[in-house]
Specification:
62% of the residues lie in helices and 0% in strands. By secondary structure, the protein is an all-alpha fold. The chain folds into two domains: 98 residues, Rna Polymerase Sigma Factor, Chain: A, CATH 1.10.1740; 71 residues, Arc Repressor Mutant, subunit A.
């Protein structure tokens, strides 16, 4: 009886399509279907812009980051591996471009490292209570956003990008770790430090009790 075999590449592609809803568009774009990649752009351009804007705090830089990220993604589609979701890979490109913008803007040339950080000596609680103030009870939404923007500018880029991905874009710790290519424990450590620093900054405007 003749056996039928399926090439491993086809199996991998099928599995990727099941786990990543974007893989069908990615595969079409790889085959030269420009409209498929344009669909990915329409799907994620606003999301990437929000991330870039929250990291760079500059509209023109954020716009350029998004354009560069999509250009690099399109040019590198053949090297994209489906062991990560397309959005994770795309967000990583956008984050790297955003941090590059920050480094170019800063006269001191502050370097950002995403190497693993040991949490020894650091307090890392299992659950950190929601610190966000209620803007409806305190200030208008727009006023609070401006205060948060100022506070975010005081964070180092390494802490800022973790806070943006976790608390603003609401990625999980595991998803953030995948984007930044870090250990989940390091993400939790940086997020904890970012929240503490933001709490200190915002306590100038709000009472400590109101930030819990």
């Amino acid at each position: 009886m003749e056996q039928t075999t399926v090439a491993p590449t086809n199996l991998s592609a099928c599995a990727a399509c099941i786990t990543d809803p974007d893989m069908a568009l990615v595969q079409s774009a790889r085959s030269g279907d420009i409209s498929a990649f344009e669909e990915l752009v329409r799907k994620y351009d606003r999301k990437l812009f929000r991330i870039a804007l929250n990291v760079t705090h500059n509209i023109e830089d954020a716009q350029e980051v998004v354009q560069t990220a999509f250009f690099k993604a399109y040019a590198s589609l053949d090297r994209f591996e489906a062991n990560a979701k397309f959005l994770t890979w795309l967000t990583r490109i956008a984050v790297n471009e955003s941090l590059s913008k920050l480094r170019k803007r800063r006269s001191q040339g502050h370097e950002v490292s995403f190497d693993y950080e040991s949490s020894s000596g650091e307090r890392l609680p299992l659950d950190f209570s929601d610190w966000h103030p209620n803007p409806e009870q305190l200030y208008s939404h727009s006023e609070f956003q401006e205060l948060l923007r100022r506070a975010l500018e005081e964070l180092s880029p390494a802490l800022r990008v973790v806070f943006v991905l976790r608390d603003i874009q609401e990625l999980s710790s595991d998803e953030t770790a995948a984007v930044l290519n870090m250990e989940t424990s390091a993400i939790k450590s940086r997020l904890y430090r970012a929240r503490l620093q933001l709490r200190e900054q915002l306590s100038k405007y709000f009472g400590t009790a109101e930030l819990r």
